[in-house]
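Complex record, two chains
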Amino acid sequence: RTQLRERIGQESESEAKTDGEPPSDNEIKPDTVTDVQPGANETPEVLNKALSEWWIRGVLTLAMICFFFIIIYLGPMVLMMIVLCVQIKCFQEIITIGYSVYHSYHLPWFRTLSGEYFLLCVNYFFYGETVTDYFFTLVQREEPLRILSKYHRFISFALYLTGFCMFVLSLVKKHYRLQFYMFGWTHVTLLIVVTQSHLIIHNLFEGMIWFIVPISCVICNDIMAYMFGFFFGRTPLIKLSPKKTWEGFIGGFFSTVVFGLLLSYVMAGYRYFVCPVEFNSDSNSFTVDCEPSELFQLHNYGLPSVVQSAIGWKTIHMYPFQIHSVALSAFASLIGPFGGFFASGFKRAFKIKDFANTIPGHGGIMDRFDCQYIMATFVNVYIASFIRGPNPSKVMQQLLALRLDQQLQIFNTLKSHLIEKGLLSASEEVA
Amino acid sequence: MTELRQRRGEGGDAGYRDNDNISDKETDGEDKTEIGGEADRDSKQDTDTPEVQPSVDNTPECLNKALSGLSSRWKNWWIRGILTLTMISGFFLTIYMGPLVLMFLVLGIQIKCFHEIITIGYRVYHSYDLPWFRTLSWYFLLCVNYFFYGETVADYFVTFVQREEPLQFLVRYHRFISFALYLTGFCMFVLSLVKKHYRLQFYMFAWTHVTLLIVVTQSHLVIQNLFEGMIWFIVPISIVICNDIMAYLFGFFFGRTPLIKLSPKKTWEGFIGGFFSTVVFGFLFAYLLAQYTYLVCPVGYSESNSFAVSCEPSELFVLQEYTLPSPLRTLLRSKTVKLYPFQFHSIALSTFASLIGPFGGFFASGFKRAFKIKDFADTIPGHGGIMDRFDCQYLMATFVHVYITSFIRGPNPSKVLQQLMVLQPEQQLSIFNTLKSHLTERGMIPPAEAVQ
């Protein structure tokens, strides 16, 4: 029984027992996974158990953070692969939960395979769109790739339709409701997991700093909120997660903002992190080299007089990006936890302790990434709204797809616009 | 008793398995609940499928009086027939009234379909005692609609938007605002989670989202098709209706071999006969409609604050001469035939509507069987709910949209220009040069101008 308790600091597990429901409800049905370490701790002393669990958590946290930095070092390609793997693993975890909730294990194989098929289709669609955008020159060169990219949407739709028709044909009399549930479950999971992992990849291509800083802010907020809660926690935050406290929440907010400011200061100095990832068609590899945009150049900011008297400096050297990082940290601390509450509620609703048992001491992959998903979407929307303009190669692509007379029209408008701006000399203008 | 047994939904997890076993036994007897087959309303003798709604007879009094002399079977036929004609006339009337009215009609239908499906979800899960949920579902509907309509408005109403200052702001930060609205709903959902009802609430959340995915996105695809030219809206819808009617007629007269266990009233004869007749119908109907500029031109919003539908028809809608292959030549006794290229596209659309469209119908049949409902709602007497009429249309709308973007339409020039203007000057210059060399290559600009 003690093993089911106190995965300290992890709101997800502890709430499962402290929400007032009878303990038997927390025993997951035999065919769903429960205990993480069946026989790891044999000593009866609670303190020893707690400490050893602490150790395991700590060691694994450090291991994951090191792993994170290693793959950053390895480059964008590896990062993309990792994101893909994490996505597949999360998808599998959630689908497995769906099967166990609905006792669908007795459905024949070709029905359970439909989940993976849809995963493949949606991934194909998204990767195709990304590839077309970023690998434009490569795609134009290779003939089969060009056709695939031109009719990409149609091909993806045809693939999806095949899956849809297979689903309809596979409906079996006794299992209609089950099958519809699994269909719905699969689609909602795809919506959440796959679309957001592709948003992460989009963020990555914008510049690795847009990938690293948000993820680090969420991790920091997790750890800091826990620390503050542990030392100062008193007033509970939400009934859904009794271990969260207002002290932890607010303390986590401030420390995450400070952490974000410092981390972005450190990272914004490196071109490797700041430049958009591009595919160099000549060398057939990813290059991360550019002139940093003004977001990542040091500016002098005059401090308001209040702060001036406090710190004693008149101006401060900052990257404009750091101001954006404040927005990102604020979101990660204030709204990000709702992703965690959602996952907690989900686990309570379906009476599971963790999503899976992949990481000892931490649960499944999904447990680690539940707050990240909202963050990824937010960063993507943030970039699209406030930072990035349209992608020039994409605009070029669209231009070339227009009819010739439309191209001519645009050409003339552009010409007059550029002449107005003084980028073209008037001598080139023809009557 | 039957009703009670079948109405039990997902209240507790323990009850689930029993429910499924009991209810699935009944599906053996339910071979009457499928849509598309025109005669399913006649199967009142199937006592195992009580309607979820109390069986209110919605037919207006006048119809009842007029048909009082006929037997109940013929009465049903007449009611269906009259309402079919009414719907078709209503359809043509709204086309006549123009794109704006059509947009509102699509919006109205979308809201009604959403309402029907959500109501079913409430019934299945007995979620009536969660008042938050209705509000949240409608809120999410509003958010997603706001997002989609904002994208459409920005694309097509560029001139209008550029004029008004607050609209410009809304358009510029459109995604952010939509996302913020959605997040508010999401946070409200999380805050509204109540101890004993977690699972119910998650189910309704998922149900709402899947419904939004199906209903709302596809209604916006319908509107996008509409803006491409009303013919891209009318022809697919008519083809699906025709296929429905034709497949039923062929099945009625010649039907023998059943098509799929899910819908026992469908037959292979109906399927194939419907396919051929739909292709022919589409071909002729496209020929008829392609002559009218009103239907063929993209809908544009002009300076005069109204929709303008006039243009130079694209080559798709210009008569071309095609030489006939020799077997047809002797048959039709002429060497060439004048056709619109669009008619070939209509063959593709008809093929899809007859071959794949019915899967949308089977899906809806399976859905109704899974949740033990006879019809989605009782809105249209003799036909069931709005969703019953539109289930095949949804796949068609998506297909037409994908078809248009893949094979017909290029990108929207004003949108490209818009994006161009937002780029950095150096990027604009490099694009300018690339474009210049491209156009010179194609001979659109005399080489003399290419000198820089």
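Note: Chain B has a mean pLDDT of 73.
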